[in-house]
């Protein structure tokens, strides 16, 4: 792997959907860099510190959430003189996002009083009262023609169906949930799935049985990496442990409200064959499940809690970080570690670009990118050491 030098950041960073640009928040400024040369191609000045960044799907527009104002500013890469400012006033802004057509912005007010759809074409706006959540509860069809929005009033959850052509409500129906958690359209747009919160205990008729004694890891999983540090020479590597094993467990503190427990991280692989999960009561363990065979594929037990994990969007490769100076990767052929050759750079978050060729790695006050080589054929084996 090849790494760039570190660049300053003070907030969110993200690739554009077409993978050509990287947007970086540096205090009040929005810096747009070319993802290949890393030269600054645009520089926009915002009215306050940037809390949130999101690209439009066409990569032409980008919005910045200035939630302390509260305000939204949007910019155009092709027309730098064009700008848009959305100020909700006393209602506030808890969250903002783009619609699939890249020409409308959806904002959620504080306390979920209303959802507003703002048009960049004719400056019109449409309101939807009582959205259930700020950052969740909205799902679009694959073709972007319809939206399903969760609302709640009179102590009951509802689903509103909207046409994205004119943003009129086509219909609304109640759902039998205690506390609706989120909503999602099916891949073929023929159905809507909703799920409830875990407030009410329910038993599963046929729970998935996992026999840890049958977990067998091959020598392909033994990978190691080394680096020279100021304290001396040390190795970072995965070691195979025979099953059954005892995983590190953290009991939630009883004296703190809303302790972290349950599944705090879940992500599908690009081919839908694997799911990775992290139980917040066992934050150092990342579970990888084989959905096709309904079995556990691997458990990666780290020294420190798993901060972030992301699947490559084009192949079955998982990357995770733990706030250390190393990246940890897993494929069906094995797991391995990669050292980051930057001084005092600890990875706290990571993101893939859309074609899976590059990783964006965030430190506390800087970021860098890493060019990721293509996976070898599944029949080939990894070498026992990786120090690229």
Describe this entry's structure for a reader:
The protein is an all-beta fold and 388 residues long. The model is unreliable at 206-233 and 378-388 (pLDDT under 50). It is built from no helices and 33 strands. One of its GO terms (cellular component) is MWP complex. InterPro entries: Centrosome-WD_assoc (IPR052778), WD40/YVTN_repeat-like_dom_sf (IPR015943). This is WD repeat-containing protein WRAP73 isoform X3.
Fold topology:
Blueprint lengths: L1 E2 L3 E2 L4 E3 L5 E6 L2 E6 L5 E6 L6 E4 L5 E6 L4 E6 L6 E4 L8 E4 L5 E5 L5 E6 L5 E5 L8 E3 L5 E8 L2 E8 L5 E6 L5 E6 L6 E5 L27 E6 L2 E6 L25 E6 L5 E6 L5 E6 L4 E7 L6 E4 L6 E4 L4 E6 L2 E6 L9 E4 L5 E5 L3 E6 L17
Antiparallel strand pairs: 1-33, 2-33, 3-4, 4-5, 5-6, 7-8, 8-9, 9-10, 11-12, 12-13, 13-14, 15-16, 16-17, 17-18, 19-20, 21-22, 23-24, 24-25, 25-26, 27-28, 28-29, 29-30, 31-32, 32-33
Organism: Punica granatum
InterPro entries: Centrosome-WD_assoc, WD40/YVTN_repeat-like_dom_sf
Protein name: WD repeat-containing protein WRAP73 isoform X3
In short:
With 388 residues, the chain is mainly beta. The chain contains no helices and 33 strands.
Q: What attributes characterize this protein structure?
A:
388 residues, WD repeat-containing protein WRAP73 isoform X3, 3 domains, five-stranded antiparallel beta sheet, Centrosome-WD_assoc, Lipocalin, globular, mainly beta, Methylamine Dehydrogenase, Chain H, 45% strand, WD40/YVTN_repeat-like_dom_sf
């Amino acid at each position: 792997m090849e790494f760039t030098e570190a660049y300053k950041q003070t907030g969110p960073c993200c690739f554009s959907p077409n993978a050509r640009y990287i947007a970086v928040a540096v205090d009040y400024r929005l810096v747009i860099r070319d993802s290949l040369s890393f030269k600054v191609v645009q520089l926009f000045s915002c009215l306050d510190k940037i809390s949130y960044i999101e690209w439009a799907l066409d990569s032409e527009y980008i919005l910045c959430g200035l939630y302390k104002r509260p305000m939204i500013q949007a910019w155009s890469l092709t027309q730098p003189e064009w700008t848009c400012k959305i100020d909700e006033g006393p209602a506030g802004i808890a969250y903002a996002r783009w619609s699939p057509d890249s020409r409308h912005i959806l904002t959620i007010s504080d306390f979920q009083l209303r959802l507003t759809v703002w048009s960049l074409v004719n400056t019109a706006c449409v309101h939807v009262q009582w959205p259930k959540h700020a950052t969740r509860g909205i799902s679009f069809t694959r073709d972007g023609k319809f939206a399903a929005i969760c609302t709640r009033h009179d102590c009951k959850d509802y689903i509103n169906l909207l046409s994205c052509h004119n943003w009129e409500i086509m219909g609304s129906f109640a759902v039998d949930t205690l506390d609706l958690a989120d909503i999602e359209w099916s891949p073929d747009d023929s159905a809507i799935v909703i799920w409830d919160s875990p407030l009410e205990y329910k038993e599963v008729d046929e729970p998935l049985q996992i026999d840890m004694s049958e977990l067998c890891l091959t020598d392909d999983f033994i990978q190691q990496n080394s680096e020279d540090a100021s304290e001396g020479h040390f190795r970072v590597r995965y070691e195979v442990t025979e099953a059954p094993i005892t995983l590190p467990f953290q009991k939630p503190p009883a004296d703190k409200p809303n302790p972290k427990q349950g599944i705090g991280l879940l992500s599908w692989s690009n081919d839908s064959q694997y799911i990775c999960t992290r139980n917040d009561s066992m934050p150092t363990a990342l579970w990888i499940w084989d959905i096709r065979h309904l079995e556990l594929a691997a458990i990666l037990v780290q020294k420190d809690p798993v901060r972030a994990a992301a699947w490559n969007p084009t192949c079955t490769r998982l990357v995770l970080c733990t706030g250390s100076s190393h990246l940890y990767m897993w494929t069906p052929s094995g797991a391995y570690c990669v050292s980051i050759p930057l001084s005092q750079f600890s990875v706290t978050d990571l993101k893939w670009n859309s074609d899976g060729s590059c990783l964006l790695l965030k430190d506390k006050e800087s970021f860098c990118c890493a060019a990721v080589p293509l996976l070898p054929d599944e029949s080939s084996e990894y070498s026992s050491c990786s120090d690229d």
